[in-house]
Structure formats: C-alpha cells, structure tokens
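Section: Multi-chain targets

For targets with more than one molecule, the full set of components is provided together so that the structure can be written out for the assembly as a whole rather than chain by chain. Components appear in the order listed by the source. The example entry contains two components.
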Amino acid sequence: MATLSDPHPTLHAYNTLSKKKEPFRTVQAGKVGIYLCGPTVYDKAHIGHMVGPVIFDCIKRYLTYCGYDVTWVVNITDVDDKLINKANERGISMLEVAEENIKDYNDNLSALGVDQIDHFPRATDCMDEIIGFVKALVDEGFAYESAGDVYFDVAKDTNYGKLSNRSVDSMQGEGGGTAERKRGLADFALWKSAKPGEPAWESPWGNGRPGWHIECSAMSKKLLGETFDIHGGGLDLVFPHHENEIAQSECCHSKPMVTYWAHNGLLRASSAAGKVGGRGERDRKSSADEQASGKMSRSKGAGGLADLIARQGGERIRFFLLRTHYRSTVLFNEPAIEEAGSGLDGFYRLFKRYHRITGKDFYAIESPSTREAGAIEPGNDDVLKAAATCREKFLTAMDDDFNTGGAIGELFELAKIINKFCDQANLEDGGKNDSAAIVSLEKMLTTLKELSAILGIFSHPPQDSGGGDELLDPVMQLLIDLRAEARANKNFTTADAIRDGIGPLGIALEDRGGGTEWTGGDAGSLEGLMQLLIALRQTARANKDFATSDTIRDRLATIDVTLEDRPGGTEWTRS
RNA sequence: GGCGCCGUGGCCAAGUGGCUAAGGCAUCGGAUUGCAAAUCCGACAUCGCCGGUUCGAAUCCGGCCGGCGCCUCCA
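Its structure, encoded as tokens over all components, is:
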C-alpha cells in the first residue's frame, strides 16, 4: 500500500473494509478527497437520499475545521435504464428527465444546508474517461467484449468480494437476458450495447452506454486520483456497487482505490408512524399493511420531500438526521422530526435571549473556523471552564467516527450552561451592565456558534415554515398592547382571555422584563386573531368600554384593516 | 440458504471493560410568574434473556429470544 500521512492525533474513522475504527491518515498530507455516490436522477429525490449528503457535509466541515484541505465529489448518474424508461413514458428526452430531477435534488440539498460539495460530475459529461477506463480493463485482460457488451471478468480478480465479504460462488449476478453473454454469473457490465433509439455513445465496441459501476471508478479517478481518502454511500451500495468499483479501479491501477469506506445507515419507515391523512384510528388492519416497516424507498411511500421540507423546515430535518450516528438505521416518521424540532426551539429561544441582552444577532457572530483558534482560555472562571469542557467533549465525539449524536448532546449541555449563567448573573435585568459577565456570555455564544457550524446548523435564522402573513405582526402587537393594558389594570380575565385565545392558533406569548414576545403562528393564524379581536371589541362595547373598542378599530385602521358592523356580526376586510 | 447489523428509562439516543449509565422529548415536584409561558433546580433506567471470562461488563465470549438489512435497481 502507498504510504499514508502520519495519523491525525485524535481523529478516528470507521472503515467498512476493515470493519474497525482506524486512526485517520490521508493519501496526501493535509488533503482529503471524498467521493459520495449520488442519486440516479430518474425521479424526484426522497428523504432517504439526504442522509448521505447531510452526514458527509458535516464530515467535510469537520475535516476542514481540523485543518484539512478537503475536496468533496458527489456524482450524478444521468444515464441508465430507468432514465430511458422514464423518458419514453413521458415522451421527453433522457436529458430533460435528468435536468428536472437534478434541480429537485439540488433544491433539497440546499434546503437542508448541504453546501459543501465541490464537484457534481455527471456520467454523461465523463464519457471519454469512462470509455478509456473500460478500454484499459479490456486491454489488461480484466474485461471482455461479448456481442457489443463489455463485462468485467470477476474470475480475474482474486480479491473480489473483500468489501462485502462474499465469495464469488455465492453470487447470482445479473441473470436473465445477459447471462449467456457472460463467462461467469458474477460478471457485471461495464458497457452495454444500445438498442435502436436509445441514447448511445460511440465506443470501440460499438454504440452503447456505460454500466452503472464504471462511472464511479472513472469519475473518482478523474477528480480525486487513483487512490483517494474516503468513499461514501448508503449501506445498500456495499454490494454490488462498491465491490465492483473496487474491482474495476484496483485491477486497473494495481493500487488501493480508497483508504476509508464509509457507509451510512438507511432510513426505515416506522410502522408506528402517525400518518397524516389516516384519520380513522380503528381501521388499523388495512393501514398497518401500507405502513409496514422497511427501508425507505419510493415503493414504500417515501417521497414528497419538498412538501416535507415545506412543512418542517430544512434545519429540523437536518438536525433530526444528525441526532443519530450515521452508521445506524434511523426510524423515520414526522412526529420524530417534530420532536427534534422541540429541542431546536430551545436554541432559538437562547438566541433571542442573547439578542435581548446584548442587542446582537447570534447569526452574525463570527466564530473561529479552526480547531486551534477556537480553544477557550477559561482562566479561573468556572462557567467558562464548564463551557470549555463541553467543547472538548463535543470534539472528542466528532473525533470518534464523526459521532454527531454525542456531539449534539454537548451542544444542549452548553446551552444549559449559558441559560443558567444568564439567570444567575441576572443578565436580562440589572446584570446587563456587568461588562465582565457580558464578555463571558459572548465567549460562550461564540463557542456555540463555532460548534454548531461544524454540524452545519444555526447559520441562518430558520425560515418560517408556515408562510406568515404580513399582517400577523401588527395584529399581534395590538393584542399584546391590549393585554398589557388589561394586566396593568389588574383585569386578568381579559388578559388571560387574550392569551388563551391565541394559544390554539399556534402562537405562544412570553412575558419578559422589557415586554411580551410572541412566537409561532402560520398562514391560518390571522383569521383566528381577527375573530378574537372582534370578540374583544364586542365585549368592550357591551360593557360600554368604548375607549377599548375604538382603540381596536383605530389601530386596525392604521394597518389598513376595516371593520364593518353588520346585523349578523362584524366582518373585517383589508384594503 | 449465505453475509451482516441491532435490542440502553414512556419515546428518541450517546456510551463498547472501571468515577454516582450523556443529552433530547414527555411526565411529576420546586424556584420564578397575577396566573401562565420561558429559564433554572430536583425526580425518573443496572443497559432483551441465560450462562461464562474478569478484581470489575451495558461494554468481551457462548447460547437463546426479538427486530432489521444485503445477496435484484436503490442513498
């Protein structure tokens, strides 16, 4: 084996090839090449396609943070049987099918904060490299032509099966129509001859298209070299895809293809999923079958990823995926994403608290981007010591095969330390002027930013998933003012009526020293708020409290909302 | 049949030989609040079962029970 760099002092990575965690060494000192198998773009992406990109996005961020110069490649398979079938079904070209789904894939990636990918090679853009690779294998005697197809001769590769731990005899290979063209059942296609009308490229073996496995060998070689550091993909790709990649590349180059094989666990549909739409709790029998657990796939009803993101927001989904170690199976269901979101909300509240205290925006904090620069010097400060310990534990978890789940635990711990500090130093009130305390606070939030940046979260405020109405804020301000007045007058009946009235609309109030804040709300909330205001105004009028009733109408008028009293009740319109 | 993974509190989930088994969600007390919410404090598990190795195991070995994956396209 080629000599690798000295190991990183602390980082270890699991290797599917050795089935062990190994000290992290690189092909070239200070550099890391990562190749992740991307999607075959014959249809829209589903949530399962996001697992690999999210975890490798974190892996790249962490390696960069640790000082490596990282290049990350995700390939796009834009030529294969399924694409051709899809194109025929829809009466459009294969290229159009691909373009459409690549856009969908990219949109989903960016919604989940995956923005670290350096190269997105497409199989159809690398035909020369692919054909060259096949030709080299044929020339070396590892592959043979048969009736316009080219097959890899598995019998020539004595190491075949080392990744998936299989013996050649136990393999079925592609049966069916191609069996008689092959020398061995386990032989797999490098090049497939084209039928009339199919997309095809010229080659020494006639017109055809590449097999699935060869594109990854060719593209990784083109962009990362003959030996590179990390090759990732879903656990379901170990065999045959990655096994075949190894066979192709290592026979061709006579050297290791990859140092670390990293495979993420698969998403599983949870049978306990509380499906939206399945109202009837009673007819479990029929719906239970449909929700039978199994790997997430289109046939199991996965999909609607864009809708899911619209409902939940990308950050929740990313956080949900990172809570579990990447090699584990994740049971997927929407309530679980919401639960992850509840945890996330605590961080968002902390950021608001930080803003209340300092007037500064958490998202604007510039945090250290390297491991060395981020070290805290706590001195004798117990709080900073505790924060520094959290940071150490976070990094230890990440060092241990990118244990994002363990790392997230430390993030929560750090948030608690900060909240406690704010409480004890009374920072929302008199302590605001304690400049030493503010400095400590800033240090801890900077650390929080530094660590969350490794996970790729909290870089932007979460987008409003509900699509809030622009009237929501002024209407809420009016309600908050009315409630404040009621409270000042010890009229708690009215004050509580307001709070209890907006609660069911998905909006929560938090009374702070400096005023009342509100959170939540979606497109459907406004109507309920208006009805609440109308009811409050009716009550006021019934009590001859015309000051209040007029205030409501006048304040609404300033935001271009008109109330009209009619015999059947009051209606509101916006102009 | 072959290869492999998993089983930690109500739910999710770190921890893979040694301090009182992280953390999140939920629940129950307490501080705080006009009452709430938020925040903080506290309560809440001996790690599927049995046996073995060891001074010592959730962590290693064996058996059993239960769940899952790959062996065909798949992130």
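The CA atoms of residues 40 and 77 of chain A lie 5 Å apart.
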